[in-house]
Structures are given as structure tokens and as C-alpha cells.
Design brief:
The complex is a heterodimer of chains A (237) and B (108). Chain A is mainly α and 237 residues long. Chain A has helices at 3-36, 40-49, 53-64, 69-79, 83-86, 101-106, 110-120, 129-154, 167-206, 212-236. Chain A folds into two domains: 3-165, no CATH class; 185-237. Classes of the chains: A mainly alpha (237), B mainly alpha (108).
Chain lengths: 237, 108
């Protein structure tokens, strides 16, 4: 594919996240401005540098209370601990990223992880996959940053009722999950079922605020166990 | 809340986030490559993690008000149905989001 087509392919792949990030970014910017009285310069700085949506929302009350810096560090490690798992799938693919590799690791958000996973099996992006990966990551980063800057500038003057538009992000994950299962056969279906079941059990047992990290840890453990059992079966057969 | 406090707090938050994202690459990104078991795990993780993220997005359903919960579940079903039918990512997302937003307003 030539450069223009690669760019267009990446842009189309990034549109769902644009819908989600711009509106969530707007919400973040509006809050940053109304809660802390901070201007667009701070929104630009925070969103470009931190680039982790849910943590930035969590940071607003922490900053407002002038929370000690070590506490800010610990909170960040806890809230973002799920990111420990995303890189596992991109250790090998990112080897070919060259000078862009640090940026690719830096910008690996939940949404970017999911969208890049959905490109991984797409034959259309085959040879120039690393360029597509880079464009998608950069576009997502820009959407989030532009959204939050606009939020501080427009503030509460936005009177359009957009309640519920953030469902676009949920829908994106559902769509990618369906594609993963459809493209990956029985194996992918089993893995997805493990994630869904463990997630539901822990959500009900531990509650919405605490279930994510145990869920990810147990899911990884279960997948390793399944792998071990399969290896044993193949060795006996 | 001084300017230097804000600037530092943001930097620390960014550094911690980056460290977490970097960890797997430091652990397994060396010349030796990933152990075979980890490599197989890496292949299996995407559907499992994305399934967990779907649950994460719907985490408010069990405790939320019935209107929002019903809207979420119906909209997710709409996304799945649309996507199985037309296989068009943007259509599925736009359609599902429209269903969700409409239901929120109807069910209050």
C-alpha cells in the first residue's frame, strides 16, 4: 500500500475512538475548568503528557486537595495497573517499530490496544503494519488531547445534550470482541469466555471499583493453566 | 495548588503510567525473546482482555438504576446483532450508541 492509502486505512480504523475520545476529552476539559479553574494550557499539558483517560479524571480531585506527590504516584500505579497486561501482546510486533518503539509503548491505551489487536489479523494492513500502528496510536493521542483542550475552552457553554455518547467506547470493545471471536475460531471463543466469566464473577463478588485487577490476573492465570493442560494432552496423544 | 506542584504531579502521574506500560517490554523485550509459553499467552490474551474490558464498560449495570442498565444491555445486544448482520464497524458503533442514547431518554 502507498503512504496515502495507509494513512486512510489508519484513519478509518481510528474513527470509532475519535467519537469516544473527543467526547470524553470534552467532559474531562469541562471538569478540569470547572473544578480547578485551569485553562486549556493545562488540559494540553495533562492530556498530551499523561495520556490515560480514567487516571486524568481521577487526578482532578487529587490535585484539588493538593495530595502529596508519593500518594499521587501510588494512586496512579493502582488505577493504571491494568496496563501491565497490554504490552504482553505487543512485545513481538513492536520489535519492528525502530525509533518509534518508545512512543508506541508510551501511547498504548486500552482503546489503542484493542484497535491494534483488531488490525493484527487484518491481511489488508499486512506488510506495512508498523506504519498503520503508528498512525492509529498518534491519531488517538491527538483526539484525546484536542477533546480536552476544547473542553476547557468551550466549558459549560456547550448546551447540546450528549449524555450517553460515551457508549461509543463500549460499542467499540463489543465490536472488536465479536471480530476477534469470529476471526479466531474455537480458541478465541474459549479465551473470550474465560475473560467474560471471570469478569462477571469478580464484578459481582468484589464490586465495580475493585474487580478489574484481580480479574485480569486470574484471567491470565487461567489462560496459562489451559495452555499447560493442552500441552499435556498433546504430549500424551 | 501552586504551578510547580501541578506540573510535578502531572509528570509523576505520567511517569508511573509509562512505567506500567513499559514493564512487559522490559521483562520480555530482550534479545532472547519471549519464552514459548508467554508467546502463546500473548496470542490468547486479546480476546480475553477485550472481553474483560467489555465487562469493565458495563460495570455499572448490576448496581445502576434500571433505566441505564436496560439501556446498556439492549444497546450491547443491538451492537452484536448489527455487527453479525452487516459486519460494518462504524455502523455497529453508531447504531448501538444511537439505541443507547434514545433508550436513556425514553426510560429516564
Amino acid at each position: 500500500m502507498n503512504r496515502g492509502r495507509l494513512f486512510r486505512y489508519a484513519f478509518v480504523k481510528s474513527i470509532p475512538v475519535m467519537m469516544g475520545y473527543v467526547f470524553l476529552g470534552l467532559a474531562f476539559g469541562i471538569l478540569l475548568n470547572s473544578e480547578l479553574g485551569l485553562s486549556w494550557v493545562w488540559a494540553l499539558y495533562m492530556s498530551a503528557v499523561i495520556y490515560a483517560g480514567s487516571m486524568e479524571f481521577a487526578l482532578i480531585p487529587l490535585l484539588g486537595a493538593v495530595t502529596p506527590l508519593p500518594t499521587v504516584a501510588i494512586m496512579t500505579l493502582l488505577v493504571n495497573s491494568r496496563h501491565l497486561f497490554y504490552g504482553l501482546s505487543f512485545v513481538e510486533p513492536y520489535r519492528e517499530m525502530g525509533r518509534l518503539r518508545p512512543y508506541m509503548i508510551y501511547s498504548l491505551t486500552d482503546e489503542t490496544y484493542s484497535v491494534l489487536c483488531s488490525c493484527a489479523g487484518d491481511p489488508e494492513a499486512n506488510e506495512d503494519r508498523h506504519i498503520v500502528y503508528f498512525w492509529i496510536s498518534l491519531m488517538h493521542h491527538i483526539y484525546w488531547t484536542v477533546g480536552s483542550v476544547l473542553g476547557t475552552i468551550l466549558g459549560a457553554s456547550i448546551s447540546l445534550d450528549t449524555t450517553g455518547i460515551d457508549f461509543a467506547m463500549t460499542a467499540l470493545f463489543v465490536v472488536i470482541l465479536v471480530d476477534q471471536i469470529r476471526g479466531g475460531g474455537r480458541d478465541a471463543w474459549q479465551c473470550a469466555a474465560v475473560g467474560l466469566c471471570v469478569g462477571l464473577v469478580f464484578l459481582i463478588a468484589l464490586g465495580a471499583d475493585r474487580f478489574l485487577l484481580p480479574t485480569l490476573a486470574v484471567t491470565v492465570f487461567a489462560l496459562l493453566l489451559m495452555d499447560l493442560l493442552n500441552a499435556g494432552k498433546e504430549a500424551r496423544a | 495548588m501552586t504551578t510547580s506542584y501541578l506540573a510535578l504531579a502531572v509528570l509523576i502521574c505520567a511517569a508511573c503510567t509509562f512505567l506500567l506500560r513499559l514493564a512487559p517490554f522490559v521483562l520480555f523485550g530482550g534479545k532472547k525473546g519471549m519464552p514459548p509459553a508467554m508467546r502463546r499467552l500473548a496470542m490468547k490474551l486479546p480476546p480475553a482482555i477485550i472481553a474483560v474490558l467489555v465487562v469493565y464498560c458495563l460495570k455499572g449495570v448490576p448496581t445502576g438504576g434500571s433505566g441505564g442498565a436496560v439501556a446498556s444491555l439492549v444497546a450491547v445486544a443491538a451492537v452484536v446483532a448489527l455487527h453479525l448482520w452487516r459486519k460494518n464497524t462504524l455502523l455497529s458503533i453508531a447504531g448501538g450508541t444511537a439505541v443507547y442514547m434514545a433508550l436513556l431518554r425514553i426510560l429516564g
